[in-house]
């Protein structure tokens, strides 16, 4: 990526309508399962972010045929259950989702696979997938090797036997890796998660014809199973919508309509939190496609300010796990809220594309905010007045976008250094932000 700086000016309002690119999480999963399946899948509104396109490139390297037929649409002809030996390392780019989930998908195949990524991805923890996946290998016929717990990930694939796994760290990526491996293993695989994570994988597997069950905290899948191609429209990305929902919160006369938005209940905690912070939200329509809810919502800011004595909104425990991707934008706008936000149990943010807790704290302080940083979170008081500043995105797409939104209410211009990283998940972000911002 070429380095880019975006100048963000103070805005007086936020109004308009928007249809968002396809959900990143669902795009990854559909692409992987379509690549393994029999037949040709047609996926419309596929994510425009760089990360899911890293997944598409990996599927091509494994033998799937990928055709981009028009904007946001791809067709994928799968390998019918048998990946080929790639001729080069599988380049996952900046995408932890690609590296972790793909590891489970390819582990049963009798080849040697090397998964690599960029400098940021090469520092992210991969031991969390190695441990459960190695439990699948029957009689030591396969292995997974890391470099000091990180990429490159070298997988010597082989036959898998079903196993039982207790997920100690709430992670949809680890859950997906285990279920993808269990799909192709011999016998029953069970996974127990104490804190429920987003369930896009369960819906995607069923969409492609797989059978799996949930009983309380435990998911069960028997293998091996055969997948079949689907036609699907990917719902609009709720994590991308978070930036615009939070921007609407900043202006009393805001009016925002989001069309064809993913409204999966395991992701809906974001809508509850935005409502608690003062949004008035109306669902205009909703339907179900392949187990995923897709709807149109209207959002306005509450014109009645909240009491300054109100306790800060607390995000902790299971709520933190559900909002892990949205925490940067929620923390970035927290100084403008009436009550502020208290975040705990978010140590996972320190091993994302960056140390997000550190970057949030440093950039908020650069804008004049007062806050407290702790090991697993932040305390950000409300009712603060911020000024423009130079923002260090730290190579992190969510930090770049979060502080572009925060800058809309800061007095004076702000410069987002490293703005190009927004393209990892949302290349159109700055165009849409400028179109909706009234100046």
Characterization of this structure:
With 439 residues, the protein is α/β, with parallel strands linked by helices. It has two domains: 5-21 and 235-438, Alpha-beta prism (UDP-n-acetylglucosamine1-carboxyvinyl-transferase, Chain); 24-233, UDP-n-acetylglucosamine1-carboxyvinyl-transferase, Chain (Alpha-beta prism). The protein has helices at 24-36, 50-61, 96-106, 127-136, 172-184, 200-207, 238-249, 269-276, 317-322, 327-333, 356-366, 397-406, 429-436, and strands at residues 5-8, 13-19, 40-44, 65-70, 73-77, 90-91, 112-116, 143-147, 150-156, 164-167, 187-193, 212-215, 218-223, 231-233, 255-262, 279-289, 292-301, 313-315, 341-343, 372-374, 377-380, 390-392, 414-417, 437-438. The strands form six sheets. It has a five-stranded mixed β-sheet. It has a four-stranded mixed β-sheet with strand order 4-5-3-14, with helices on one face. A four-stranded mixed β-sheet has the order 6-7-9-8. α1 (24-36) runs parallel beside α6 (200-207), α3 (96-106) packs parallel to α5 (172-184) and α10 packs parallel to α12.
């Amino acid at each position: 990526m070429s380095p880019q700086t975006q100048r963000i000016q103070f805005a007086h309002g936020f109004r308009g309508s928007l249809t968002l690119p396809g959900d990143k999480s669902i795009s990854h999963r559909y692409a992987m399962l379509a690549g393994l399946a029999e037949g040709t899948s047609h996926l419309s509104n596929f994510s425009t972010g760089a990360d899911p396109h890293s997944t598409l490139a990996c599927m091509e390297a494994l033998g799937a045929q990928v055709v981009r037929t028009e904007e946001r649409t791809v067709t994928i002809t799968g390998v019918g259950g048998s990946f080929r030996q790639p001729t080069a390392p599988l380049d996952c780019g900046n995408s932890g989702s690609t590296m972790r989930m793909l590891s489970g998908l390819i582990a049963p195949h009798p080849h040697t696979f090397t998964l690599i990524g960029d400098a940021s991805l090469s520092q992210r923890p991969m031991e969390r997938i190695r441990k459960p996946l190695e439990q699948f290998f029957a009689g030591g016929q396969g292995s997974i090797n890391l470099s000091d717990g990180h990429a490159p990930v070298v997988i010597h694939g082989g036959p898998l036997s079903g196993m039982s796994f207790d997920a100690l760290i709430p992670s949809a990526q680890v859950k997906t890796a285990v279920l993808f491996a269990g799909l192709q293993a011999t016998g029953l695989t069970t996974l127990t998660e104490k804190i429920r994570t987003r369930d896009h994988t369960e819906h995607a597997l069923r969409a492609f014809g797989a059978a799996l069950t949930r009983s309380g905290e435990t998911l069960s899948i028997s293998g091996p199973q055969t997948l079949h191609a689907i036609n699907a429209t990917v719902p609009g990305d709720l994590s991308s919508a978070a930036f615009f929902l939070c921007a609407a919160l900043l202006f009393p006369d805001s009016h925002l309509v989001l069309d064809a938005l993913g409204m999966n209940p395991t992701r809906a905690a974001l809508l509850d939190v935005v409502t608690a912070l003062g949004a008035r939200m109306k669902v205009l329509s909703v339907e179900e496609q392949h187990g995923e809810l897709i709807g149109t919502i209207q959002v306005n800011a509450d014109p009645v300010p909240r009491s300054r004595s109100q306790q800060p909104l607390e995000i902790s425990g299971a709520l933190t796990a559900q909002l892990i991707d949205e925490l940067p934008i929620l923390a970035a706008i927290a100084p403008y809220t009436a009550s502020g936000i208290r975040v705990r149990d978010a140590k996972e943010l320190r091993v994302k594309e960056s140390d997000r807790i550190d970057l949030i704290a440093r950039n908020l302080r650069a804008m004049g905010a007062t806050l407290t940083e702790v090991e697993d979170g932040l305390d950000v008081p409300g009712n603060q007045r911020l000024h423009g500043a130079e923002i260090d995105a730290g190579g992190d797409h969510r930090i770049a976008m979060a502080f572009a939104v925060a800058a809309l209410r800061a007095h004076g211009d702000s410069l987002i250094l490293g703005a190009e990283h927004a393209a990892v998940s949302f290349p159109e972000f700055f165009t849409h932000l400028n179109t909706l911002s009234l100046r």
